[in-house]
Design brief:
Helices cover about 10% and strands about 45% of the residues. It has one helix and four strands, in the order E-H-E-E-E. It has a four-stranded antiparallel β-sheet with strand order 2-1-4-3. A hairpin with a 4-residue loop joins strand 3 (about 45-50) and strand 4 (about 55-65). One of its GO terms (cellular component) is chloroplast.
């Protein structure tokens, strides 16, 4: 039986605050999380509120291209 396109695909979430600020001088990088999303239920880009260890607070993490 042939499989079609996978419904659940892996996505990378990146901190939007770190990217917008150009990474503060005191921070050492950009926070990224790896998760999965259901292509049929969420066809648009995923945005979740996650903790950023470089900003030291909860910020919006948006889906990026691979």
């Amino acid at each position: 039986m042939a499989k079609g396109k996978d419904v659940r695909i892996p996505v990378i979430l990146e901190c939007t605050a770190c990217v917008r600020n150009g990474v503060n001088k005191e921070s050492t990088g950009i926070s990224r999380y790896i998760t999965q999303k259901n292509r049929h239920n969420t066809p648009n880009r995923l945005e979740l509120l996650k903790f950023c260890p470089y900003c030291y607070k909860h910020t919006i993490h948006g889906e990026i291209k691979k």
